[in-house]
Write a structure and sequence with these properties.
It is built from 9 helices and no strands. The protein has 244 residues and is mainly alpha-helical.
Length: 244
């Protein structure tokens, strides 16, 4: 009941702030869309169903806070700078309070599934942050150049590193989603985790098309998919052996 009240009040606040934030160049509608998607996914998992509202509020709060954090160069003396800080504070507060309520209510049998869900929420929030300017290549290339690498080598190292991170991060995300779905009693944990993680991958690349110093790429989605499938095959191997 408390979680439902918090979630409802926060959506009312989010609706009231949506237009002002839109005019300041910080649209909140992607936060709402991804939260609804994540909430639907949590609701499909039997052991997470009693905690769906609380987990959705955690996702909304953490995703929203890091989404706002991803917008660069916002002076705290400007009006939108204060709106930026206020929004991050509200989002983060909701995430912390919802998390506290969920884990205080959690029974022992559900805690493993909830830890997995929390890992998924954290991964989703990191995508909200790094899909913006904060995840751009320029700082890393500048660092490599400062270490004496030639520009062509710096770009090669940057590309290799970033694509490896794509493989590893989305693979880890997929394993966490798979374990959450399996522990939660979902019948098709591989399909569920694949859909959940790849939706975030597509969101990541689509969002980058609207960021000045970023470029969304279908090739990155393909790399993410390869990482997801490889890690899911590894995660599911013990269960296949056991069934055999």
């Amino acid at each position: 009941m408390k979680s439902a009240l918090i979630f409802t009040l926060f959506f009312v606040l989010l609706g009231a702030l949506a237009l002002p934030y839109q005019t300041m160049g910080m649209p909140l509608w992607p936060v709402v869309i991804m939260t609804i998607f994540a909430s639907t996914w949590f609701g499909r998992i039997e052991r997470l169903r009693p905690y769906q509202i609380g987990l959705s509020a955690m996702y909304l709060g953490l995703f929203g806070a890091l989404w706002l954090k991803s917008f660069p160069s916002l002076s705290i003396t400007a009006a939108r700078g204060w709106a930026w800080l206020f929004g991050m504070f509200i989002f983060a507060s909701v995430a912390a309070l919802a998390g506290l309520i969920v884990f205080l209510k959690a029974d022992r049998d559900s805690r493993g599934t909830l830890v997995g869900a929390l890992s998924c929420i954290f991964c989703g929030a990191m995508i909200a942050l790094l899909s913006g300017s904060a995840g751009g290549a320029a700082p890393f290339i500048q660092f490599l150049l400062s270490q004496g690498l030639a520009i062509n080598w710096a770009e090669l190292v940057n590309i290799t590193f970033r694509k490896s991170v794509h493989l590893g991060f989305y693979g880890f995300f997929a394993v966490m989603a798979f374990r959450t779905a399996r522990l939660g009693g979902l019948r098709q944990p591989i399909v569920a985790s694949l859909i959940f993680v790849m939706a975030h991958s597509v969101f990541d690349e689509v969002r980058q098309w609207g960021v000045p110093d970023r470029t969304g790429s279908p090739f990155d989605v393909l790399i993410d998919l390869i990482g997801v499938l490889a890690f899911l095959a590894w995660a599911n191997k013990p269960y296949r052996v056991r069934r055999a």
